[in-house]
Amino acid sequence: MGGRMAGPLGLAALGAFLVADIVLVGLAVRSTAAVPTGSAGKDRPAADSGVSAGGAATPTTGGTDSAPAAAPTSLTAAPLTVGLVAVDDHTAWRFDTGNCADGGSTVAVTDDGGKTWQPRVAPFDVTVRLRVRDNGSAFAIGADGDCRARFRQSDDQAQDWDTSVAVPGVWYRDPKDAAVVGTEARTKAKPCDSAGVVDLAVDDDSATALCGDGTILASRAGREWSLEATVDGALAIALAGDRTLALVTVPECAGLAVVDAAKPEEVRGCAPADLEAVSAGQLALAGKGATVWVAAGSAVLRSSGDLAEWTTAG
After folding, report:
1. What are the pLDDT digits (tens) for 76-85?
2. If you write DSSP's letter for every residue of 91-146 in order, what string do you get?
3. pTM, 2 dp
4. Where along the chain do its domains lie?
């Protein structure tokens, strides 16, 4: 074949072949630069549309419109070690539960929307529930060194507490066993079977338990529990009127998302909490009227109305 390509005619043919080869390589490179399947422009939501891929409006977190939401920090559901009690639009109580081995429970109260917090006397070494009445009096469920659940009351906003007595018929998470709930019928229940109860929300009619797998169960007396909803990744819950709210982490919220358990795919608001400083269980959620309070580690955030605007509450 080498003999047949000799001479000027052979050189010209070889040159034409090389030019055609270069053109074909260029076309191949351009074709491999196309958008991969599944991410073509028409399949992606518009960057400035304010609409997520699922069609729900993406909530704002107080940042600039062009700033993308940070990816959520991975938090796993764990029995809460922080509690919040919303009294009204301006007043809330916050407490750290402590634990039976080391104690450490603390209580603080704000009456100015969270601008300042006043420390109060903790009722027990371990505090698992606080209930604040309309007149400012309160009761607490907790335990001291023996880790046996007891009951105390205060008539002066936790400045002092009465002598502890046996727990009456009220709801509470057992300080000794995270899987056990004390009930209004003075019995013990395990709504989440042997798994720990992540959170327990109580109103005048019933109690609602959040399990580690996201199931939310309700009961009137503790003997039977019915499935209310399932919110994957739920970290805390709160009863707000006829709704059950839950805290989750989602990509469109740079912090914590507040969702209605009945429609968990719709984000109601984004609380811009710094989750890098928060460990599992260091969260709480409370609501009163149109106001929602969120505790994340040592920080407390507060929002009213449509939950679009949040302030750091002290």
Report:
1. 999 999 999 9
2. -EEEEE--BTTTB--EEEEESSTTS--EEE--SSSEEEEEEE-TTS-EEEEEE-TT
3. 0.77
4. 80-176, 231-314
